[in-house]
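Researcher: Here's a chain I'd like modeled. Treat it as a single chain, no partners, no ligands.
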Amino acid sequence: MNDDHGRIFREAWIIGVTTHYPGEPKPGYVTPWDDTPDWERAAAAVYDQVRAFIDVTDGATAKLTREQRGRFVALCWTGQIHKHFTDPKPSYVADWDELPDWQKETDADIFEHIERG
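Model: Modeled as a single isolated chain. Structure tokens:
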């Protein structure tokens, strides 16, 4: 796993959370990469999945809606949760429609951040 990709993902997550979260975000939501728990370093894998999706479509992901971009990030993250936890908390694997708006917006921001990079 590429640590730099995880850092980029985490930085985009923190920017999204501080932009979209209503009120003061939980400390774990804005923990810097160096203090991020090992399982959350799966962010590097999600970065790589998003980047691969962009690459194999020759950038046609630019035609996706913002919601489609966010859904893709959320789904990739859910896959990583299942990889790292045998019995994850329901909120960790919630479907798109069950996610709070701030998280949907943050996931879409992450996709766009990776796409620009």
